[in-house]
Amino acid sequence: MKVSIVGATGYTGEELLRILSGHPEAEVTFLTSESQTGGSILSAYPHLKHFYDKKLVSIDNIQEIAEQSDAIFIGLPHGHAMEVGKKVLPFGKKIIDLGADYRFTDHKVYEQWYKVAHTHPEAKAVYGLPELYRQDIKQADIIGNPGCYTTASILALAPLVKYGLIELDTIIIDAKSGISGAGRGLKLNSHFSEAFENMQAYNIGGHRHTPEIEQVLSDLAETPITLSFSPHLIPIARGILSTCYAQLKSGVKPEQVTEAFESMYADEYFVRLFGLGGYPATKNTRGSNFCDLGWHIDSRTGRVVVVSAIDNLVKGAAGQAVQNMNIVFGLPENTGLKQAPLYP
Description:
alpha/beta; 21% strand; seven-stranded parallel sheet; Dihydrodipicolinate Reductase, domain 2; 14 strands; seven-stranded mixed sheet; 2 domains; 11 helices; Rossmann fold
């Protein structure tokens, strides 16, 4: 497969290159960058020496890119992928967008939360969370790759919602992200002196991943769900730890919760169950496409607490995008993604 990356110099573009360098069925053809057009990818990421030495081209070459690619990954800020999608789609090539433009079934929700017009409403995009939408992904031309907070939180809560074990109006998500989740651009709160030895909450009640989580969980529940989501920035480079709370329905027993997780994920290669009483940790998923889940029953309050850990740049972005590519082209899902996590 010939694949290209539009927006290759961000963290997700770099992580795609790292993963694809070990993919036996993929060949990278074009890399675009508007800020570094004409330079080498090694100028942005010298650690890729001996793996790539490609010149960065402009997105103005999108027709040539589309003609010579089987799949195109888009790693652009929200609002920009739709214009690329409209130009690429007529060539019959697969599009995997790592941004938010193709994640929402209700385009008005996208416009409300992202404050830009949705300019490609006719696109028949599929939400790219393989563990829930695998059959749809197989037939998709455009895949909206999920966000990082979203992936960790949905996978944590999906069994409880699907099997009707919790009160749907009691869901609270407390999630923490490494600094790379903010992207490579310079921002005050991601400066070393601001982030080191510091933790802070941000965008409480207003984070853009909130409606994405609600959309998928509502789909599973077959009824609208509104939840509370509180993100935090923590002083690590990469990783998401999402702690999810909900009130169990009366009479639900711990073994029912365990059965729900095992029933939903027993055959999922990339979901690792730490079980009742398990404590997933970000370091155990670093550099990998795994999502680790553990759950607890607080008998005193009647709540279930699920802990989810992923690498935000892999299962939360580039790794999941490659997993989706594998599905679309009929490859085993873990092709090119069998790297063990980095430790320590």
